[in-house]
């Protein structure tokens, strides 16, 4: 075999390796997406996004919510350019909760964030601008809509939300957990 033929074979082998790795990564991502989409009726999809369950409540978030000693506090993160967030926002008054819900509207154009914030019903606390950006950064969030449940100054659970019914189911499950059950929830939370 000549040097040119050897070089061609090596280049082709390297190219095949790159294509194989790329294909495997793409297949894995498709599988993850399919798992998240195939959760109809199962509640919010757990996502490995945001701070770890059991982490302390970040200071920038603590300033925005009113944590109760024996009840959960919820923080819902919505993005200004997120279609599902725009669908969910005006329906939030239908979420039946006896505990505080704070909505952070983050991302992009301040005009779009303001429009989304106006879609959130007025009794629900809505935070935009720098405070919302700082809080979402402290929470380490990249997926929206996303909900966090805080209890006793710690993150008890978190989940990506696929709609109003999923959010309501999440809230119902969280409110059913007593403070004495919190240790168990922290251990099994997604």
Structural write-up:
It is a single chain. This protein is 45% helix and 15% strand. It is an alpha/beta fold. The chain folds into two domains: 1-38; 59-188, Glutaredoxin (3-Layer(aba) Sandwich). It has a five-stranded mixed sheet, sandwiched between helices. Strand 2, helix 4 (110-119) and strand 3 form a beta-alpha-beta unit. The protein starts with a helix and ends with a helix. The model is unreliable at 39-45 and 182-190 (pLDDT under 50).
Give me the secondary-structure topology.
Blueprint: H1 3-37, H2 59-62, E1 73-79, H3 83-88, E2 101-106, H4 110-119, E3 125-127, H5 129-139, E4 146-151, E5 154-160, H6 164-176, H7 182-188
Tell me the total number of β-strands.
Answer: 5
For this structure, the CATH topology of the largest domain is: Glutaredoxin
> Assembly state here?
single chain
The best one-word shape is elongated
- Helix-strand pattern: HHEHEHEHEEHH
Strand content: 15-25%
Q: Give the CATH level 1 class of the largest domain.
A: Alpha Beta
Structural class: alpha/beta
What integer is the average pLDDT? Answer: 81
The helicity comes to: 40-55%
Unreliable spans:
39-45, 182-190
């Amino acid at each position: 075999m000549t040097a040119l033929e050897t070089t061609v074979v090596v280049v082709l082998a390297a190219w095949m390796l790159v294509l194989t790795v790329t294909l495997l990564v793409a297949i894995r991502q498709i599988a993850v997406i399919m798992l998240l989409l195939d959760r109809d009726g199962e509640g919010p999809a757990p996502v490995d996004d945001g701070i770890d369950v059991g982490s302390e409540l970040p200071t920038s978030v603590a300033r925005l919510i009113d944590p109760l000693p024996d009840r959960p506090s919820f923080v819902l993160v919505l993005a200004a350019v997120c279609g599902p967030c725009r669908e969910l926002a005006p329906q939030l008054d239908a979420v039946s909760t006896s505990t505080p819900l704070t909505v952070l509207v983050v991302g992009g154009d301040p005009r779009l964030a303001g429009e989304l914030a106006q879609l959130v019903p007025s009794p629900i606390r809505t935070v935009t601008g720098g405070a919302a950006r700082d809080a979402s950064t402290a929470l380490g969030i990249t997926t929206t809509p996303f909900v966090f449940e805080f209890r006793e100054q710690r993150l008890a659970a978190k989940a990506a939300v696929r709609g109003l019914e999923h959010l309501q189911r999440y809230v119902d499950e969280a409110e059913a957990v007593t403070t004495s059950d919190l240790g168990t929830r922290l251990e099994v939370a997604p």
